[in-house]
Amino acid sequence: MLSQTHAAALAQTEQYDLGMDLLSRLQRVTSYSERLDILEQAEEQFGQLEVRAHALRVADAARALSLHCGFDETYANRLYNATRLHDIGKLFMPTQILEKDGRPTDDEYALIREHARHGGDLLGPSAPEFVRNVARFHHERYDGKGYNNLVGENIPIEARLVQVADVYDALRSKRSYKPGLSEEGTLESMIRMQGYGVMFDPYLLRRFVEMRLAADHDRQISPEKAEEFAAFAKSRPMDDLAKAADPAVFQGWQISADGQRRRKVFDETIKYDVLVEKRDALGEVKFRLEDRKPSSDMAREADNSNIPAPRGPRF
Ligand SMILES: [Fe+2]
Ligand SMILES: [Fe+2]
């Protein structure tokens, strides 16, 4: 499970024995609930209190975002419980790297990246896929430049929700190598990050910004910035995709019977985002983007078409 370099880094720490003990205890149980008990105890033993506090804050934010997007309570609670464990793979990360004063080196960063895979492994095959998806894929980026290079709609929706909440909390939090950003600075950074490729699910990022603006009762965001963020929240998700350098960001979209490539990406009651694929004389794909409100025709067509239901509940 651990790479050689990782095992070597861990061997020099007192976490090594705890880690080996954890693995052998996990090997003796098969049910997911028993594994969960062991993992929760391990978190205490490993003393990763900040990792746990972060996981709880992210779980709260992911839950709130899912409700804001129209998911129901049952879904939101499932997401909370899964998100609570999203960084469980950090149990195997040497504490001196986690708590390092300063930026991690390239080697250390390579170890840090392992936590997503370890999380999936620790939860084990008996864990619900939903829970494992959150652990394994919460560092994907919509443009495919994340840990596992999943792209766009191929990233499970549960992981896309958690990614937004996770980055928000990471930016807000003070770390040994950086101060925590203000609410305003955090939202501004997230919108700026979206401009370099497409980091987040464009729809979810807009709903998240909208949700944080609505929650800003004590005016931590200046009126000018609030206006700018509100304009972003109202802008078209498809505008982000149009800026993506790699057309693979459209992977997972379906080609409908009339040859158009389209996907019901977002809430059918809000809008359809439609992508029309055009080819030039040499057969090279050129894209033209359209953004239409659903007409009753389109709604009917969408019901009958072979467009698969979106992953997870509709929202
Ligand atoms: Fe993580
Ligand atoms: Fe995290």
Structural class: mainly alpha
Query: Might you state the CATH topology name of the largest domain?
Result: Hypothetical protein af1432
Total beta strands: 4
Name of the CATH homologous superfamily of the largest domain: Hypothetical protein af1432
For the record, the CATH architecture of the largest domain stands as Orthogonal Bundle
Question: Which labels suit this protein?
Answer:
2 domains; about 55% helix; mainly alpha; Hypothetical protein af1432; disordered C terminus; about 325 residues; globular; about 5% strand
Outline the structure in words.
This protein has helices at 4-11, 15-28, 32-46, 49-68, 73-83, 95-98, 106-123, 129-137, 157-172, 183-195, 202-214, 223-234, 237-243, 296-304; strands spanning 254-255, 261-262, 272-279, 285-292. By secondary structure, the chain is mainly alpha-helical. The protein has two domains: 4-237, Hypothetical protein af1432 (Orthogonal Bundle); 253-304, no CATH class. Strand 1 (254-255) and strand 2 (261-262) form a beta hairpin. The longest helix is centred in the first third of the chain and has 20 residues, at 49-68. The two termini are 37 Å apart. The structure holds fe (ii) ion (2 copies). Residues 54, 58, 86-87, 166 line the site of one fe (ii) ion.
